[in-house]
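Input/output pair, single chain:
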Amino acid sequence: MESIDPALLLSAYAQGIFPMADGADDPSVHWVEPRLRAILPLGGFRLSHSLKKTLVADRFRVTTDAAFADMVALCAEPAGDRLTTWINPVIKASYDRLFQIGHAHSVECWLDDRLVGGLYGVSLGRAFFGESMVSRARDASKVALAHLVARLIAGGWKLLDCQFITPHLASLGAIEIRQADYLARLYSVLAGGDADGVLGAGAVGAGAAGVSPPSPPFVAGDWGALDALGAAAAPDFGAAGATGSPPGYVIAQLLTNTS
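Output:
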């Protein structure tokens, strides 16, 4: 199966660029650099009362990296609100390669043994790039995003890129910023700094001067840090296995304390 070389793909992300296809049946991909970029500040996730109740009730069984290929395939399926997607076979194969080398992750929501929602994305340093999320049951994608944000906070991530703003993401705390602002935050995080308080004007000046993005290796976040917190808070959690995600009350507590 044709795919994008992982080194090229990660290099593109480090420069604020990502691939898309015009449709699921389109055999080609093109590179995208939006003029306006959506991010979700990790301390600004909006945990509504109703979502908190859903989390604490553990309506869904939540796992991580347990069904990455299935998660991508579910995101690629047409649905009533979108008749086609931008995820074609090249995209699927490319992100599966990133998953195999530890640079892509998924969060899955299950009802019984049925995958009903979740998300996947790319990890580079302490930046996480959300690629797609899907819901086939009420609140499944919201629960997956809550688990992701909690995992990123616990693991030391500094930036959550959402690519394009939507009303759904905005309701959960996502904001839209200029690409120059985004690049300033991204470069700062990859260089080992923070994303907050970085001025976009600096990125404009730096870009004009031909400054390149930081070079790897980048200090990585700890994807498993949340599991250690979950095991400490819920002694039975460890029995759930390596792919389980901590109980909803642990997620809700972490998000409440950091928001």
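The mean pLDDT is 90. DSSP finds ten helices and nine strands in the chain.
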